[in-house]
Amino acid sequence: MKKIGENGKAGFSRTKPKPPLFPSKEIYGILPDDPSKQYDMYEVIARIIDDSSLDEYKAGFGKTLITGYARIDGWAVGIIANQRSVVKTETGEMQFGGVIYSDSADKATRFIMNCNQKKIPLCFFRM
Questions:
Q1: Closest Cα partner for 41 from 77, 71, 79, 91?
Q2: How many CA atoms lie less than 13 Å away from 48 in the CB half-sphere?
Q3: pLDDT tens for residues 99-116?
Q4: CA–CA distance, 11 with 111 (Å, rounded to integer)
Q5: Which of 35, 67, 87, 102 could form a disulfide with 57 if both were Cys (CB 3.0 to 4.6 A apart)?
Q6: Whole-angstrom Cα distance, residue 79 to residue 62?
Q7: Cα–Cα distance between 4 and 21 in angstroms, integer?
């Protein structure tokens, strides 16, 4: 039995956890009672991820969807979240939060493939 090769490891990355810079209980004040109202998803994410540090992927592209690398309780994760506010594209077009436009879908597809190749688990936020 000592000659059998070692099984592959999952490859997940974990470091020492750091608390978010903002209290997580503040999320209740950010999220509106009416689900049709707008809010800034960056504010919610900053109260969940370690050190409130998001390494955003293609920040200026497909702005109705937030994608980025972060840590939650020390674990490396890929974040995908609907941005629930109205955003303006580079061409001046207004896009409504919660709707996945083609540019956001392209960004999410590439980000998911990158996370898969790097063995980074995904965390979806849809609120």
A1: 79
A2: 19
A3: 788 889 999 999 999 999
A4: 18
A5: 67
A6: 14
A7: 47
Dist. CA 20–CA 73, nearest whole Å: 10
The 3-class SS string of 34-88 reads CCCCCCCHHHHHCCCCHHHCCEECCCCCCCCEEEEEEEECCEEEEEEEECCCCEE
User: Does the pTM of the predicted model rise above 0.70?
Assistant: yes
119 or 71, higher pLDDT: 71
Please identify, in words, the CATH class of the domain defined by 24-125.
alpha beta
Whole-Å CA distances, 35 to 5, 9, 45, 88: 53, 41, 17, 21
Show the tokens assigned to 54.
């998001």
Q: Which amino acid is at 34?
A: D
